[in-house]
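Example 3.2
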Amino acid sequence: MRAVIVGPPSPARATARCGPGSAASAGSGSEEPRAAAEARLGPPAPQRAARRRRPRVHDGTIVTTAPNVRRGTDATMAWTKSDGWGWVFALLDHHSDEAWAHVAKIGNRFAALQPVYDAVTDRFGELSPDATRGIKLRHD
């Protein structure tokens, strides 16, 4: 097994890297047609094969039947003349469209969680491990 790993590369691999039309022989002026290259190298790998996307069944709206079932969060950057660039983090209830927001100069994970903390303390009165059990949080 060691001889296989340490030994020279197979001729197919060497040709694939240094054959006509490759970057290594770009100065030679000979271009190999794509069909000939595919015939020599075989079909593309399955993970790279072109695939058609299935049509999405999602209509673009997420509405719940009651408040405090699902919330969505997102972030963006905003420019102000006085402070320069800053981060805006928002949390939205998908039923009532209530929103909580937080603005921060540094957009890290602590700043991103601040509107979630604000919404939990506003709705449930405390930050405890089971205060929001069952509420789904989606993020972009």
